[in-house]
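Students often ask why we bother encoding 3D structure as a string. The short answer is that it lets us treat folding as translation between two languages. Here is a chain of 671 residues written in the first language.
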Amino acid sequence: MTARATAPYGSWSSPISAADVARARLRLSYPTIHGDRVWWQETRPDKGGRTTIVRSGVDLLPAPWNARTRVHEYGGRSYIPLPDGDVVFANYEDQRLYRLTPGELPRPLTPEPAQPAGLRYADFALAPDAQHIWCVCEGHTTAGVRRAIVAVPVDGSAAENAGAIRELVSGADFYAFPTPSPEGGHLAWMQWSHPRMPWDGTEVRVAAFDETGALDRPRQVKGGLNESALAPTWLSESRLYVVSDWPGWWNLYELGLHGESPQALYPAEEEFAGALWQLGGRPYAVLDDGRIAVLHGQGDQRLGLYDPETAEMVDFDLPYTDWKPQLSADGTSIVGIAGAPDIPWSVVVVDADSGEAKVLRSELDSPPEAAYLPLPRAQELEGPFGRPVHAYVYPPSNPAFQAPAGELPPYVVFVHGGPTDHGTSVLDLEIAYFTSRGIGVIDVNYGGSTGYGRAYRERLRRQWGIVDVEDSVAAAEALIRGGAADPGRLAIRGGSAGGWTTLCAVTQTDLFKAGTSYFGISDPQNWLKETHDFESTYLYGLIGPIPGFERAYEERSPIARASEVACPVLLLQGLDDPIVSPPQSERFAEAMARKQTPYAYLTFEGESHGFRRADTVIACLEAELAFYGQTLGFDPKDVAPIELTVGRPPADQAGAPGQEAAVSEDAETSA
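And here it is in the second language, the structure alphabet:
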């Protein structure tokens, strides 16, 4: 065995490069199975972040077509297969629906909108007549945003005649899960309205079709103002399954249309669903024989098989520790996206009878040697007032290096976005990029995170910028108390809502010596005015309604507290971000300049919310590593140094936005 070299933490050489991390940003999502065919979406960073549609390993969509819907800006499933093998998809550039016959150019199905991307479509279901797609339609005009469930003919007649698109349901602010009954007599769907988010209070509604084809007397069958109900699936014309969190956990229920009380199928203090940030995924799937493939657990979710006849649940004996809430089933075959600490997210087909699994595609074809991958240690830490805080701890891991005796490693607190979301234990090369260089990571599922029940989720209600910061600080302090981290070399970083928590933390405490904000919110009152419709009242629940809570916004605003920034900050921002617009980062950079606090502000043209391009990912990670080297006191290998700006606002900095050379003085980076 080769002896390990001795070198300070943070200065270790690693075979995991930023380019490797960028390649691992291939994103697989929304698999669908029919017979022996499996479709899925595949987002490719080396192709500028373009999303294509793959069927059983064959790329169906030629460049430059980009299958990506912008409904709610977060999008979701962008395609649906038709019985004849064609595919209907939403094209990113114009947001129109197109019909794709493999081997031919796509043909438009919806009219060209009056303004660019003015009409958007998502969450597709095939109508019982197989001649229409039922979906959510989102219309953007100067008067605002309006949504409805519509029927789009698949023969192309609506491409020139918008009147061919029939509106089925309207009146609420938001819709999801349009689901026809087996014989086509009913439609079920989910809806909610401002100021609630889909994890706050929603309704599942059902209506019957009358003789004219219109929906008659829609009625609520589950949900309410303080109950999140979602994902209806029909058993028959009069019975259906629904997920609801009314007892405090998202569990699966059976409902009847004739006044029967909802019946919990498998009541447990576990989540059988997650937050609905994107449309089109289902957290369970019914097999042909009536058994149900379900995802369940606390934090990470396991794949189980529930039998309604025996009320028994059996988990599959598979190496995967977590699954995305995107299941599909046909016959006895189940397909989903699964991963583990040593297995990248993969499209996996499972045979329900034998339990055998087959991997069709992985986000990373050749993972690094296992010794370079940190194994997460799930911990329940003690936060303020004795409340538990969930986290995954990733110590430094590199078989070729060891630190000098007595040295403690630097640690970075990772803060997920959302904030109604959570970190998982699945292999993440971004974390390995740091840990293999001798920098520890603790990924915190602070109060407000999903995966631990509604009460844990609602800890953040009216407490955003307080509880999330306290829990992140508690996680870092737990490392110090345990002798795992150097108390003088702690950093914090996050994206979107995680960027907010980062900026709040560095303006409320001096615990951290560096902070990195990827497109983070710094000015919440202005963010309410600048952001998109889906989240335009989100902060009413997280901080408080406006007007009325202006003082709370001001007290927690990182911009308002910029004079108290305790450490250098790296700001990374996409210039085409419709969710957290560039002024959020720009104004904080200006505040840093006024305070004479070192910072770097990097911007990227063509990037939106969540970076998709390989060159952007590489530039950000290398800048972040260099930033930690300078602020935490180590010499990182194989990255150019970063020069922090002091006292000069972004507009006065030299260099063009988005240029990698600008990393030294003018720079940038959820659900």
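Translate back mentally: The chain is about 15% helix and 30% strand. Keep this in mind for the problem set.
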